[in-house]
Structure formats: structure tokens, C-alpha cells
Specification:
The structure holds two protein chains of two kinds. Chain A is an alpha/beta fold. Chain A is 54% helix and 10% strand. Chain A has a five-stranded mixed beta sheet. In chain A, α4 crosses α6. Chain B is built from 14 helices and 18 strands. Chain B has helices at 18-26, 39-45, 52-56, 102-105, 117-129, 150-153, 155-164, 201-207, 214-226, 244-258, 276-285, 308-327, 339-346, 353-365, and strands at residues 7-11, 32-36, 59-63, 70-72, 85-87, 90-91, 96-97, 111-114, 136-139, 169-175, 192-198, 208-209, 230-238, 264-271, 273-274, 297-298, 304-305, 331-334. In chain B, the strands form four sheets. An eight-stranded mixed beta sheet of chain B has the order 4-5-9-10-11-13-14-18, with helices on both faces. A five-stranded mixed beta sheet of chain B has the order 2-1-3-8-6, with helices on both faces. In chain B, α9 packs parallel to α10, α10 runs parallel beside α12 (308-327) and α12 (308-327) packs across α13 (339-346). The longest helix of chain B is centred in the C-terminal third of the chain and has 20 residues, at 308-327. Chains A and B meet through α6, α10 and α13 of A and β16, α12 and α13 of B.
């Protein structure tokens, strides 16, 4: 059954009659209220969409319109026109659905995943998991599966900072398996680190993965790992230096995560320099050294350039064959 | 070792099959038995979900034969495959190896045995007879452990009796167990190779569960050697970690301390590689396993592999230890590797899958 909110007439309610601490129907998380904008709007046009309240024993609890009512109070108003549901006239389930609709239909925005988890948590308490899965997961845009239900509910036990990052979009759900490789406190440290260095989404993914995997592999804490890298996430780089600090940390992390590949690449690069090919010639190894297809790249403008390049190659093959061999037969030795 | 089967599902079509009768005689007293009209309904119950892997490994479906009896090893593009053929009598494995690729390869963890052995082996025989010009190296250890369920099913004896009469095939049974009671004292006609997966003691202790120790595996291998079986060992997967050299050198030495080189048909080597999807499974099911945090690159077949220069070095070392331990004349081959790695590690490479297959065919005909 759906509560017909618009059929409930708005009446005047004293703000002192509202239970401000009751957050039973609150579905806002990690979404800061733009207070000054909201205040200005209410000042200018008034309360166009009356909040929804439910009458209880000790006053009226807010169902829809938490932010609007807070703003109304900030503006020094003493009463508000609100729709009030009589005690016992609607179930908790109906009221929460009204709160969801207020966000998703009236507010025109989807609940973020933490808000969805909050709603599911409450509904499961009231109507049981099975009905919640079947009736409300689809309503929130998901397939009615227990796995999805458990996944979303699991988000509520993440560290607070991680929940906030998920809610405000700084963190994608896809990064959670990586983050979970770290202890809870370290998950927040990793987020702080990525925030301080203003990493893009793709960079965050790689950085987080590499850092977390090193911690697991070498059984070190992220705190110790960052100390090893000489990086303190609490200290933001000076303006203008962020890109350099970020690049240095990313390079360090990659080298620490893939020491063997790094060494192989360095050895190959050193041998390439030693070959003394001209700037126009590059001998490229297979991607990640996998397979046996090397590529010789030459930048040529005319036949004369081609003649020079061929001559140079013949000379190097004659005098530095062993070096070519070393590059083609790259092998790791500990 | 008795496999820890909690539930046995029996399809109506195999209620009275000899394999079924044996399973019912030998099952744990408290194992539940459920008869089902169509096993596919049971399979659906075990479609992947939380906990399905663990439950699946404790549940056995005795199925009426409907699988392809012989399937080529799936191989992997651009890497050399020995053209092993899978005698598909069972799928799923009751052992618990953290790194097991079957966790990702199969969409369903249920243990399934083709209980209608007569129909299964008749169909397999037909396939082999249709290609008298070809020599088949058959194996049962790709989609399951060849002997892990044998204390319950007694299937190995049937497979050996089947292989004994084959003019154009040899059968390799590959296991990590010591469940050899059912295969000793049988006339195998020299057509069966008993193989063990081998690994370092550390990997066995940390990554393989419900399996026999290396020493126990070698003890079982020695018994099979005495029973006249030819043997094989598969160092696969080999892991790279601090101390891997000492550990694997020791493992190789242990093999040759217990087994005569002349009894070994072949040794295969394969560094750990996996489809990317396996990483999630391992991290969920075996959170203490740290091997997926090693250095891997995505190779041209889409699998995660150690960098090629490292693999070459690892195989090269293994070869040296095998030679030093007395295995200089044993055929050693690389499982699913490219020609560059073959040349770098072994000094030679088969030109193609067919040639590699011929090398192994020759080794088991010796």
C-alpha cells in the first residue's frame, strides 16, 4: 500500500512540536546540505513542498523534508505548513517509501548506495529481508537478489570515511574489494592519500590496488608503506607541486609493487642506451616482455635517412651483437 | 583418505549402477542421499553464490551419462599445448587448493561422476576406435583429481581395465592424494601412468588442503612403482616467493630420492597462471593466500602470468635441479608455455603442439 501524501492537507505545526533528533526516516548520507542556497531559496519563495511529519507520542517526527525544516528553523520561523500523518494511520514501511519517493521523485535524484543501504536496513527490520529483497530492491533499481541485498547492507559496516566517500562519489563500488584488503583504519588513510594528491578515478584505482597488494604481500601496514615512500598524507603539497609529488609517489609505488618488471625494464633501457642507436631508431621489446615480437621503429624523412639507419644498424650488429642478444633474450637473474 | 561428502544426489537412471552401489556401501554413515529425476536440477541449486564452492565440494551427483566422453585439453591460444585428451568421467574436485583454476573455470562446484560407467566407457572406446591412426594420451586429472573420490566410487579400477585394452591410447591418472588402494594389484598392461602433482612443502602447507603431504605422495608413488606402473610428476603450479629456490630444489631432490628416474615417463613444469577472475575467488575463499599479490602481467592469452624473463629463469633452475638430481634422461616439458620460454629455459622448443605431443607419445611408448 502506498501512502497518498498529496491527499494529506497541510496544517500549521509549531517547530517546537517537532522531534528534531528522531532520524527514523532520515535517508541522507554523505550529501552535505547547501545551506546558504537552501536558506536563500526558502527566504525568496517560501516552503513550496510541505514537509511530511508523523504524529507520535512525544511530538511529530520528520518523514520527508529534514533539510528544508532545518533551514526553516535557521531562518527563525516558529511554525511551518506541513502534512501530518495521524499516529497509527500509516505503517513505518509506508512512511519510509514516502521518504524514498520524496528523494527520488520529488527531489529528482537517486539515493546513493549508502542511503539505499540505510533504507534497506530499516525495511528489513520492519518487514523482513525477503519482502525487502523482492519489493524494494527493484524499486531502488536493483535485481531482487539476496547477494545484492547483502552487498548493500555490508556497506553499512565499512569505516565511516569509506561510507562517506562511497556516498559522495569519490569512491566507486568497484574499488571496494581492493580497499578491503586493508585494515579499516588504513582504508581511510588510503582515501586521505588519494584525496591529498587529487588523483583521477583511473589513477586512484591503480594506486589503491598497488598499495593494498603490497601491504598484503609484504605484510606491512599502509602507514609503514607510505613512510617508506617518505609521503605523509596529512601534509598537502604546496600549490603547484601536487602533480610532481603525485607522479613521484605513483612511480615509487609501481616500482615497489613490481620490482622484477621494473628491474627488467631498467636493464633493457640501459642496454638500449649502450647500443647508441640514433634518436631516429628505437628497438621496442614485446609488451611486458611477453612473447618474442620485438619492433624496430625508425623515423625517416627520405632515402638518405634510410641509408644512414641501415648503415648504423649493420655497424651495431657487427660490433655489439652480444648486447642485441642480451636484449632479445631478456632473462631475470636474482 | 575418505572424501568428506555430506550429500549424495543420485539420478534415477543410475540408481542400480555398480558405481552407485559402491558409493552407497562406502559413504560416510551420516551422508544424506537424495534421488533425483534429473541431475540438472541439482546442478542449478549449486549455481555460483556465496558459499556454493564449499558446499559443492561436499556434494556429489551420480549422473546418468550425458557428457562428452573425451575432450581435448582446452589449451590456451599462442602457447604450446601437449594435446592431452581428457577422459571426462568426473568434474569438480573435493580437494581444496587455494590456487585451483577450476574455481573460476567451472560455473558450478558440484562434484559430478558419470555413474553409468558402462555407457561412458563404451562411448569413450567408440571415440578411440574411430581414430585408429592416432595415439591418445588420455588423462582424468584435468577437471578433477583422478583418485580423490576413488575410495568412494572405485572408478579407477574401471578406467584401468578400460585402458589396458586400448591399442592406441595410454591413460594418466593424476592426483594429490594417496588413494591408491583401488589401483594396486590390477593388471594395467603397461597402459597406465600414475602421476602426482608435486610442489614445495611450503606451498603444500599453505595453499593445498585435504591433500597428502609431498612425502606421502611420494610414498604412494613408490608403491605404484613397485606395482609396475610408470610414473609422472607435475610441478604445476610453481610459485615465485622468497625462498622458492631452496624449497623447489628440495622438492625435486625428494622425488629422485624416492623414485628411480627410469620409472618416470615425464615431468611437467608450469608456473602459476590464472584467468583474472580467479583472483577474486582466491581472495574471498582463501584470504590468507598471498600468491596473487606476486608479479603478474596479463599475457597474450588473457591469463595472468609471471613476467616471461622470470619464468624462463624459474624453469631453467628447475631443469638444472632435475638434472642434478639424476633426472637428466627424463622428458621434461613445459605446460602451456610459448616457444621463447621453451628455448630460453630448455634450449629447444617444439615447433608446434603436434610436435610436443609426439615427444610425449614417444616417452610413454618407451
Amino acid at each position: 500500500m502506498t501512502l497518498q501524501v498529496h491527499a494529506i492537507p497541510a496544517v500549521s505545526v509549531g517547530l517546537g512540536d517537532i522531534g528534531w533528533d528522531d532520524d527514523t526516516y532520515l535517508l541522507r548520507y554523505g550529501r552535505p546540505v547547501r545551506a546558504s542556497e537552501l536558506d536563500a531559496s526558502l527566504e525568496r519563495v517560501g516552503m513550496l513542498n510541505p514537509p511530511l511529519l508523523i504524529r507520535g507520542k512525544t511530538g511529530a517526527a520528520i518523514v520527508c523534508g529534514f533539510a528544508r525544516l532545518e533551514a526553516w528553523r535557521r531562518l527563525g520561523r516558529k511554525s511551518v505548513q506541513a502534512r501530518v500523518v495521524a499516529a497509527g494511520a500509516a505503517s513505518e514501511e509506508e512512511l519510509l517509501v514516502a521518504a524514498i519517493d520524496d528523494n527520488e521523485v520529488a527531489g529528482g535524484r537517486r539515493l546513493n548506495v549508502i542511503e539505499q543501504a540505510m533504507a534497506l536496513e530499516k525495511l528489513a527490520d520492519w518487514v523482513g529481508p525477503e519482502r525487502t529483497i523482492q519489493a524494494y530492491l527493484p524499486r531502488l533499481g536493483h535485481k531482487p537478489s539476496r547477494a545484492t541485498f547483502e552487498k548493500l547492507l555490508g556497506y553499512r559496516s565499512l569505516p565511516k570515511g569509506v561510507q562517506v566517500a562511497l556516498a559522495d562519489g569519490r569512491l566507486g563500488e568497484g574499488m571496494l574489494p581492493t580497499l578491503r584488503l586493508l585494515e579499516p583504519a588504513e582504508q581511510e588513510l588510503l582515501l586521505a592519500c588519494m584525496g591529498t594528491l587529487r588523483m583521477s578515478a583511473g589513477t586512484r584505482r591503480n594506486f589503491a590496488r598497488e598499495a593494498a597488494e603490497i601491504c598484503r604481500r609484504d605484510r606491512v601496514s599502509l602507514t609503514d608503506l607510505l613512510a617508506e615512500a617518505d609521503f605523509d598524507p596529512a601534509v598537502a603539497p604546496l600549490p603547484g607541486e601536487t602533480p610532481h609529488v603525485r607522479a613521484a609517489l605513483l612511480a615509487w609505488m609501481r616500482k615497489r609493487r613490481y620490482p622484477i618488471l621494473h628491474q627488467i625494464e631498467s636493464d633493457y633501457a640501459a642496454a638500449h642506451v649502450e647500443l647508441e642507436l640514433c634518436d631516429a631508431l628505437t628497438l621496442r621489446h614485446p609488451k611486458d616482455f611477453e612473447g618474442d615480437e620485438f619492433h624496430l621503429e625508425a623515423r625517416l624523412r627520405n632515402v638518405e635517412d634510410l641509408r644512414k639507419v641501415v648503415g648504423l644498424l649493420a655497424d651495431r650488429l657487427e660490433k655489439r651483437r652480444a648486447l642485441f642478444g642480451k636484449m632479445f633474450e631478456t632473462r631475470w637473474r636474482e | 583418505m575418505h572424501p568428506p561428502i555430506h550429500t549424495i544426489y543420485i539420478e534415477d537412471g543410475v540408481r542400480s549402477a555398480p558405481v552407485t552401489r559402491r558409493v552407497l556401501e562406502r559413504k560416510n554413515g551420516d551422508a544424506k542421499v537424495e534421488f533425483v529425476a534429473d541431475g540438472r536440477e541439482v546442478v542449478r541449486r549449486f549455481e555460483m553464490g556465496r558459499g556454493a564452492q564449499g558446499r559443492g565440494k561436499r556434494s556429489l551427483l551420480l549422473s546418468d551419462f550425458r557428457a562428452e566422453p573425451i575432450k581435448p585439453c582446452p589449451g590456451t591460444p599462442r602457447y604450446l599445448c601437449c594435446r592431452y585428451e581428457i577422459l571426462n568421467f568426473a568434474t569438480g574436485c573435493p580437494l581444496e587448493c587455494a590456487y585451483c583454476i577450476l574455481q573460476d573455470y567451472f560455473s558450478n562446484p558440484l562434484l559430478i561422476v558419470q555413474a553409468n560407467s558402462d555407457a561412458f566407457l563404451a562411448a569413450a572406446g567408440e571415440t578411440l576406435r574411430a581414430r585408429p591412426d592416432r595415439f591418445f594420451r588420455l588423462g582424468t586429472g584435468e577437471f578433477t583429481d583422478s583418485l580423490a573420490l576413488d575410495p568412494l566410487t572405485g572408478y579407477a579400477r574401471l578406467l584401468i581395465e578400460f585402458a589396458r585394452g586400448l591399442p592406441n591410447a595410454i591413460l594418466e591418472l593424476k592426483t594429490k592424494t594417496t588413494s591408491i588402494e583401488g589401483i594396486l594389484g590390477i593388471d594395467h598392461g603397461g597402459r597406465v601412468i600414475c602421476a602426482w602433482s608435486a610442489n614445495s612443502k611450503r606451498v603444500i602447507a599453505e595453499e593445498e588442503f585435504r591433500v597428502a603431504s609431498l612425502d606421502d605422495r611420494l610414498g604412494a608413488a613408490a608403491q605404484c612403482e613397485t606395482a609396475g606402473y610408470r610414473l609422472a610428476f607435475h610441478f604445476d603450479p610453481i610459485f615465485h616467493y622468497d625462498g622458492w629456490r631452496d624449497d623447489y630444489r628440495r622438492a625435486v631432490e625428494r622425488v629422485f630420492e624416492r623414485i628411480r628416474p627410469e620409472s618416470i615417463a615425464w615431468i611437467s613444469l608450469g608456473c602459476f597462471r590464472y584467468r583474472p577472475g580467479l583472483e577474486r575467488v582466491i581472495r574471498e575463499r582463501f584470504p590468507l593466500s598471498s600468491h596473487t599479490y606476486g608479479e603478474f602481467i596479463r599475457a597474450s592469452d588473457g591469463k595472468m602470468r609471471y613476467p616471461q624473463p622470470l619464468r624462463i629463469e624459474m624453469y631453467h633452475q628447475m631443469m638444472q635441479w632435475i638434472r642434478a638430481a639424476g633426472g637428466g634422461d627424463v622428458l621434461v616439458y613445459l605446460c602451456m608455455e610459448n616457444a621463447r620460454v621453451w628455448r630460453g629455459a630448455m634450449g629447444r622448443a617444439p615447433r608446434n603442439n603436434a610436435e610436443l605431443g609426439r615427444w610425449l607419445d614417444a616417452a610413454c611408448r618407451d
